[in-house]
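Researcher: I'd like a structural prediction for the single chain below. Treat it as a standalone chain; there are no partners to consider.
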Amino acid sequence: MEVEEITEEALALPSEARALFADRLVESLDPAEEGEFRRLWAAEAQQRLYDLRAGTVQAIPGDEALTALRKKYG
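Model: Treating it as a single chain, here is the predicted structure.
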């Protein structure tokens, strides 16, 4: 099976299955690369927390955010 075929099949999965698939792909990467991903995600989380505390962004309750995402991508 070619990469493009796998990609097409993966994109046809429901969103929760795609998220699980993506997570497993990331976990399968070289441990050195995984460390870099973790570092980047930690930096992103720190920036988001800073923005929230600084008042430059407004938090949205989780249920509202999920409803909006499901409406947009569901």
